[in-house]
From TrEMBL:
Residues 159-177 have a biased composition (Basic and acidic residues). This is Zinc finger CCHC domain-containing protein 17. Gene3D superfamilies: Nucleic acid-binding proteins. It comes from Ciconia maguari. GO terms for biological process: RNA stabilization. Pfam families: S1 (PF00575).
């Protein structure tokens, strides 16, 4: 059979990983893997098909392995009632193939984020940003990054100041009554 051809076949055997389908007009059988049986997750192929069932399938792959032709079939891209192709341009098959591929970084190099922090702006001369991100006007105030230790001290001082003002507000409210 031709690649991406649709035909109705008979289920020959059902395994835990899929079902083998007899292809009409030849002695070959093709495998419908359980991932290609339905658009939903299939745990047990025996819940979907039984031996002797007639199913519509699409030939999605041919592979020569050990001088044997292995055929891959799909039921989920064919309407099981009419035999109509639900994926005429094979878009969902391509998407399934892309999902299987994983990105692997073979360089084994760690990414460091210090590159931006250690840069010096050419516009204002401050550290921590690029000239295109600089918001300083010529002759204006210059800004630079504050070290992290100082931020904790400033935050603690701000908290103490807020505490004092809230106590003062409470005492002035009491006097007004």
């Amino acid at each position: 059979p031709e690649l991406y051809a649709i035909f109705q076949g008979e289920v020959a055997t059902v395994t835990e990983y899929g079902a083998f389908i007899k292809i009409p007009g030849c002695r070959k059988q093709g495998l419908v893997h359980k991932t290609h049986m339905s658009s939903c997750r299939v745990d047990k192929p025996s819940e979907i098909v039984d031996v002797g069932d007639k199913v519509w399938v699409k030939l999605i792959g041919k592979e020569m392995k050990d001088d044997k032709l292995k055929l891959s079939l799909s039921m989920k891209v064919v309407n099981q009632g009419t035999g109509k192709d639900l994926d005429p341009n094979n878009v969902s098959l391509d998407q399934d193939e892309r999902k299987k591929r994983t990105f692997r970084d073979y360089t084994s190099q760690k990414i460091t984020l210090e590159a931006v922090l250690n840069t010096v702006c050419k516009k204002c001369g401050c550290k921590g940003h690029f000239a295109k991100e600089c918001f300083v006007q010529p002759g204006g105030t210059k800004y630079s990054l504050i070290p992290e230790e100082d931020e904790e001290d400033v935050a603690a001082a701000g908290y103490e100041r807020d505490k004092k003002t809230s106590l003062a507000d409470d005492s002035s409210k009491k006097r007004k009554k």
